[in-house]
Design a protein that fits this description.
The chain has helices at residues 2-19, 226-235; strands at 24-37, 40-43, 56-58, 60-61, 63-75, 78-95, 98-118, 121-137, 156-166, 169-178, 185-189, 204-209, 213-225. It is mainly beta. Residues 1-22 form the signal peptide.
Length: 240
């Protein structure tokens, strides 16, 4: 895991070093919230109607968060924007025995190609490499060593979105779509608390789909801009 993180960081620095030679280069920070979609678990019927459910449960997306750094190099009205972003994703399965949280931590490296529509408005799209750092589902047995949840079998997603920039600050909204295929996992066992319920509860199940798509909303701040740096040198005024 550390080798992967180091490789991602080195690649990001290498891209930045090459972009520093571009005419219009900027770098900054970003952070915000993400809303997840997806995730499906199917119960396995025990054969006893009052024991365990065989229903299909689709996760309800919760609000997670993210933070990272970005760079952008402009070529006229076009631009390339690599980023490196840490995200915490959360979804919830409403099992009969109670809400069960599905949490994923990931480090993603989007490389986006965009176009300036007019003024402060840009659109963009591109791939994102994703490294899953951790993935857990509550109530999985054994509690002290639950099985690993495989979120994706291909470490890539596709992103498309739009952003606006006003001086040093910006707003970014994008959709992130997993490119991995659906993968069955299991059977797995959940803590059922069967004695406390008179209805079928979730016990043995198959994780039908662990993939998560996202709507991502970010606030951005520009820390450095070569174009404004050149204007400061020529005009002697202070700009961001």
């Amino acid at each position: 895991m550390n080798k992967k993180l180091l490789s991602l960081f080195v690649c990001f620095l290498a891209v930045n070093a090459s972009l520093l030679h571009a005419q219009e280069f900027s770098i900054g920070l970003k952070g915000g919230i993400n809303k997840t979609y997806g995730g499906e678990i199917v119960g396995i019927d025990s054969g006893l109607p009052t024991e365990y459910t065989s229903e299909t449960f689709t996760a309800d997306g919760e609000i997670g968060f993210h933070g990272g750094i970005w760079t952008q190099v402009n070529f006229g009205k076009f631009f390339i924007r690599p980023e490196i972003v840490y995200s915490k994703l959360e979804s919830r399965f409403d099992f009969p025995q109670g809400p069960t949280l599905y949490e994923v931590e990931e480090l993603s490296v989007p490389v986006l190609v965009g176009y300036n529509i007019f003024g402060p408005l840009d659109i963009y799209a591109g791939p994102a490499y994703k490294n899953i750092m951790d993935a857990t589902i509550e109530r999985l047995e054994p509690l002290n060593d639950p099985p690993q949840v495989v979120v994706q079998n291909t470490p890539f997603s596709a992103q498309i979105g739009a952003k606006v920039q006003f001086g040093s600050f910006g707003l970014d909204v994008r959709y992130d779509r997993a490119l991995s295929s659906k993968e069955f996992q299991g059977p797995v066992d959940f803590v059922s608390d069967r004695a406390n319920f008179d209805i079928p509860v979730m016990n043995r199940a198959v994780i039908e789909d662990a993939r998560l798509d996202q709507i991502i909303v970010s606030l951005t701040v520009k820390l450095f801009d070569t174009a404004n740096k050149d204007r400061r040198r020529r005009g002697g005024n202070c700009y961001f």
